[in-house]
Structure prediction request, 994 residues.
Amino acid sequence: MSGNPLSLLEGVRVANVGAELFAESIRAQGGRAAQVDWKPPAGGDRQTAGIIERMSACDEANERAAERLQAARPTWIDVATAKDVIPGMQDRMILHSGPPIAWERMSGPMRGAVVGAILLEGWAKDEREAERLGANGEISFEPCHHHSSVGPMAGVTSPSMPVNVIENQAPPELGGGNRAYCNLNEGLGKVLRYGAYSPEVLDRLRWMREELGPALRATIRAMGGLDIKNLIARAIHMGDEVHNRNLAATATFIRMTMPHLADAVGDGKLVARAARFISGNDHFFLNYGMPSAKASLEAMRGVENCSLVYTMARNGTDFGIRVSGLGERWFTAPAKMPIGLFFPGFRQEDANPDIGDSAIMETLGLGGFVMGAAPAIVQFVGGTPAEALRATNEMYGITWTRSRDYTLPVLEFAGAPMAIDVRKVVETNVLPIINTGIAHRQAGIGQIGAGILRAPEAPFREALLALAEKMGV
Amino acid sequence: MPSLARVLPGAYQDSIKLMRISSAASARPGVRQAMAVLGTPMNLEQFRGAGFPMEAAKGAGPNDLVLAVLAESEAAAAAALREMEAALTARPQASPGFIPPLSFASLDAALGADPGINLALLSIPGPWVRREAERALRKGLHCLIFSDNVPVEDEVVLKRLGREQGLLVMGPDCGTCHIGGVGLGFCNVVLPGPIGIVGAAGTGIQEALAAIDRAGGGVRCALGTGGRDVTDAVGGLAMVDAIRFLAADQAAEVLLILGKPPEPRALQAILGALGEAGKPAVIHFVGADAGAIRSAYRGKADLRAAGTLAEAGHLAASLSKGGAAPPAPIPSPDLLAKVTAWAQSKKDSRRRFLRGLYTGGTLCAEAQAILRKTLGAIRSNAPLVKADKLADPETSPGHTVIDLGDDHFTRGRPHPMIEPSLREGQMLREAGNPETAVLLFDVVLGLGAHPDPGGETAKTVARARREHPDVLCLCSVTGTAGDPQGLETQRRKLEAAGAVVAETHAEACLLAEAAFREMAG
Prediction:
């Protein structure tokens, strides 16, 4: 509230915390009331609720961290070969999505993608040998997130793959200058990221490595950089939530890059192949959105006492988060099963548990968090635009701030709910909504649908308690 | 296995909608698999993979819609296909507005969406109130605490914080407020005007609002403080702050102060604040000795002490219009004649006692305050005088009045103002008690109350009168002309059932008093 307390008598605007009938009565009289569906904080656990109360030192830290997130200017600057640019990338190393995982615990699609990457790299001559290599420790597996990278679904990135390079062009005092990397999007259907590794999949990856990657490199170098934050902001205004819907973002991307691609590449046939490939995939932009979110969130990593989440990721077996004030430490729980809509011939039982680094979009406050802005795909959340608005609205309850740049026309241009605060998640017991593609549980089959789910609660609670302990409260 | 298919050329549809249609049709009994897809090469490959004959999709291109069903019978396939076609054109149920009222998981979230929020209304379990109210106050919100069971030390902490921040903390256990033209909690519909009410009493405020409305007055606001505010433990913090608040508000010209009798230090603080306010004020503390109050403030301010809630409301209305018109005499001659006639016919009856059954706590207190002067001890589960405490709220020795809003009766049940039919059993039991002469009760209208409390109670009255014709059913209706239930309609329903319906609660009490006087005399 601002201004003179006496203004209360001129008009009352109520936050009705508790019984909804009071809000209804106020509205029936023509008054304004916002309903707060109060639940006992931390599920009624007074000890945890008390800890949260005492963590007020987080506020100032979060404010500083959030300022870095707001200031981030993710810009696409290059396409390069993974081993040349990804920090710490080595021979016989495969990056994967989510928290760390060994071969033994990898799900079907993750193993499939690993096999595909081994074959692509030529480290094995066939599937059997590739599996043996994966199992016997000759390949080192590391999370993309440990190497400034992200990858959708299996997220499998191997040394020779082309990757998009995103640079956060915010000033260094606001955490700028860092870079993030992401492989190129292969399209839908049978693709490596969903665990498929048939010859057509590998042929496509080789073509992407040999022709598409260099073409895009020439393009972006000719362009001198592309402001991805701006592109995402516009795409949201056109109905994308930039996770499960990237149609507007991809179309805009094409519009902005094609003339430069044609100029830079010159070879008409090659331009046509690249253009046809990009145009044939509504999700091509996802692999720009994700590293942009990653580069933005990395800027607020490691702020002391900060309770904001800078990573949410899944590897198909585990779901994990990392919290700014707790550095690199993962907090994990078993990955949950997305509830979704399935392509014909597939059903819920075929689904693999939640997988992919793409929850980086929700970590930033997009994807499922801005469903209200993406009415075209509201069928994932119950089918009505009202449900989608409700979902977005709920996320304001667990986020620290609102984006200055990503705004939602339908909510009177309110900023997207940005930066998840573990305190708020535990206190309200409202869990982040994540939009996702759904992989078949068996390797090699690919995407079978898309859907939505909530993050598991345990990692947020554990991270909260760990932060409280570190802060000495 | 029977299969049916249809190709709809140029029938582009959103793919998610098609997936939903496919799943719904696949879930029908007797259907093995149903598909609604656009004829893209990838989709057609899946189509084949799912076991559909390719000729079914013959000629379908990427912009053509293919509907196909594999089923156990032709009939099941045909029904599923029909359903898919219908689903293509079905419109979802219209929602009432484009953006429905949204709810929030926390106060923070609500404030994020509407920074103009200036009041938090809390109706959550008492032990959690302090935490939420402290947050609200720190965010600059006034607080209205409907919850009860808030520890008194929490109340003091919150009210001190409110004072520091220049914000009102109304409650805990504050059921009635009227702010900015909006009734909050249980409240009556009143016209705007210059009277600023501060009350430590819910139905007390309502009874006064009814009197103000009847006298043609209007209300700037009614600020509740919760009943415990006027104890010395709390020291009248909220009442003092609310008085100061209204002192600073230009539009509040006349103050009306209501409540149960403040404890000494709280009273001093309240009278001090009224003195500083420098505005004409009417005071009524239910059960307090008006003379003692008068002598306490004599000469310090422009104050008037009223004898009853209704009189207080009337006086405030009259002052606000620049006059000091006395209220109509009570009890009215017509009703008095009616009650006297009844009492004369019962002089020899063994029915000797008053039994009051109240939905409104302050009205229950007012009944004791008025009647104990002439009838002697009035026992109650909510006694004005400690010695009159009922041992068991379920049994009535002598004259008793029961507050049905007491925790004893409301645990696990709605408040009787929301559900007056809960009173039926007790009313019939008391009417059937051979000692009961007069059944006294209240009917409270307004926002938050039952939509037809008069009608519900009238049904009980009719039955009590039928089964026990010797009992006098006496009541008042607390309501205003603008209340949604319709004041006159409610009164007529009760009268038609055989109740004597007084204009004000005080009048109902005086009629009861007259009846017993007549029976005794």
User: Anything to note?
Assistant: The mean pLDDT of chain A is 94.
